[in-house]
Amino acid sequence: KTLQCVLTRARCLMEVNNVRSLTIDGIVFEGCHGGFGGALWTAEPLNAALSVKCSRRVTLRNCEIRNTAAAGVMFLKADTCRVQKCDIHHVGASCVDFEDGGAGNVEVSGCELHHGGVFSTSPLLYFQIVRAHAIGNHIHHGPGCGVVMWTPRSVLASNEIDHVMQRARDGGGLYGGQVYCRIHDNYVHDIGWPGLYNDEGGRD
Length: 204
Description:
- The chain is built from no helices and 25 strands.
């Protein structure tokens, strides 16, 4: 059974801190006003509709996040977290954002990530973590990069990335410094910029 949750002017719709094993399934998140910027390591929730800090085995599945002024879902120091079969769109910053390292082994798969960066040039999907897997997603219509990966030993496979880089002037479909990563079977089109922009530090 699907639960629809509609809130307005909330700073964050759900805050998850130091949790070990949680599945969030079939919820619609809508309407938080968020903030603009701010430090990661404060008592406040992350700048996202769904804020997940220092948690392990958190899965977001079959959910929709929409119409928020902040990011869709943001993870800080994630360990074995998943975003699966979600539709995240019309958000102020990134649709999905993994920040500031962590144990890694994270996954974003089977998702529709689109029309993010409404108030910024944020990438639609952002990884700053080890062993990240982005598989089978449709990532489209954003002002900046489709995917940013500052990451070692990660996989980007079977994704479609299109109509990104609509406002930014540096980047591409996939941007960042990827080290020992596998990039396979992706379809990048209609961006007018490089499909792969492997920047400083990227190798192997």
